[in-house]
Amino acid sequence: MKFSQAVKMAFYALRGNKMRSFLTMLGIIIGVVAVTLLISVVQGATGEITGQIESLGSNLLHVSFNGMQPTHLTISDLEKLEQNDAIYGVTGVVTRTTTIRAGHADEDYSVEGVTRKYQDITNQVVKQGRFISDIDVEAHTYNAVVGIDVATDLFGTENCIGNTLDIGGFDFTVVGLLEKSDTMLANKDSTVLIPLTTAQRLFKYKDFDALYISATTPDTVDAAEDATDDFLIRELGDDDGYSIINQSAIIDVMNEVMSVMTILLSGIAAISLVVGGIGIMNIMLVSVTERTREIGIRKAIGAQRSDILIQFLIEAVVLSVAGGVIGLGISYIGLQVLGTAMDITMPLSLGTVALALGFSAFVGVVFGIYPANKAAGLKPIDALRYE
Length: 387
What we know:
Layout: H1 3-15, H2 18-56, E1 60-65, H3 75-81, E2 87-102, E3 105-114, H4 117-121, E4 126-129, H5 134-139, E5 143-146, H6 148-155, E6 164-167, E7 170-178, E8 191-195, H7 196-202, E9 210-215, H8 221-236, E10 242-246, H9 247-290, H10 292-300, H11 305-342, H12 350-376, H13 380-385
Helix pairs in contact: 1-11, 2-9, 2-11, 2-12, 9-11, 9-12, 11-12
């Protein structure tokens, strides 16, 4: 019997019991939906988080001080560290949360003392006006750059250049407005940036709360981290008062964690595919019993054992693959809905599609081989006598 003829007969047999065929496929459909949704959601979340981290700069180092002891670091000290060939730029930051007033409005916001280099190192984009300049830092000016939420909350408009803010009893002139942040990490929409020296004077704090260090290239991040570590140990005397966070290392660790999560979640979801396979085997065994006389007649008129085996095996594979295709369709719709609701791109990759269809076909073969072999092993005389 030709393969195409066997496929036609398999479809004909399945159409004869549409409801039973659909209920049999249901286990495969649920399994495929579970596997593809979990894999795609994890991949989408991984891509989103990685993109946000990379938007800050994969060559960025962040040094935080525990505040247990004074660092006594100055801008001149940071300029010495900047002379290292592996380092592109270094900037210190002072951060406080304080009440800011503008007219009759007042809100608590994060105020950061920064330098001109902060813009380049942390990839800040100015929408209107300008950023903090070297002159602002040297002259201890009372100028400020605000996030877009600060502008709309306090002034009711984004056109706030030239307006005045009251920070700690001092009037600051708004000279710049930051572009709205498209990342949850390092979001500056609710932040006010002022000159570093002004912040140190305002908050009566001569040290830095943190350092941002940009390596020359992503390949020199490790060298920049070693140079920073050596510098801080030399200046502070030990390594107990600070910690260095490597953005590139964070991305690598996160990708490893997400890969493990993908494997674990896929394994759990694959259990439903196995359950669906058991359902296929059960229904195929019932089908073999119901069609015993049919099998006997076909064998009596010359059908070979391989013909019967192939037909029932194809029926099992068609059930599982059809369930896989339907499951992929449902998954695609589900991912579009989830992606829109969560504002995250959740791709249904070609690899995921191939995995789902391949595993579905594999389940059909594995769980269909026993019923098919049982059907092929029936003796014509016994099959014809079956009532």
